[in-house]
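Expect sequence, tokenised fold; for instance:
***
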Amino acid sequence: MLKITPYLGILVLIVSIGGLWYPALGYFMLLIFAAIFLSSPFRGRWFCGNLCPRGSLVDFGVSKISKKRKIPDAFRSLWVRLPIFFLMMGFMGYRVASTIGSLNTFEKIGMIFVMMCLVTTSIAVLLGTFLSPRAWCSFCPMGTAQRLIGGNKYQLKLEKDKCVNCKKCEKVCPMQLKICQTGANPDCIKCGRCVSICPRDALHF
């Protein structure tokens, strides 16, 4: 991961809380969306593990109080993730469209983004506390979009002849992926923790 990754969580707090008084902060979400859709065709979910402010918040903040339980398999199912994606995007699009043309349109649209950030962050913190830090990330709409756009890009490579099946990589994987079985996974967030901890250098991107 990048050196700045552990400190990005403060940004989601600024938008979620500060945005209640300064709705213009909500437009920061547009920068996030742009970064996601520019990077995902080339590196899949790399943004999630390196630049996502909410990911940073749960990894380096919520993880300290998390019960660190198993993420339910249902959270990873596209049958669950796709409806959530279309529901949230549709709702946000509807709210924005219905606001255009009204008084204080700029601030009202900004507040829509702020509320979306606040609600999803609250869900992420709750799930991260009572399940696993990255539980939300398993079905996050933006994570799902990145998987669909570039899930086969910049994949983790496993050299099975070097692997001794110690499973240290799986223990540090924030997404709880079965790295020793497959290596590559479209939901890998490319944080690099597995690569760093492997005693046999059997993993690389």
Remarks:
- The longest helix spans residues 105-130.
- The first strand starts at residue 157 and ends at 158.
- The chain has a mean pLDDT of 95.
- DSSP finds ten helices and two strands in the chain.
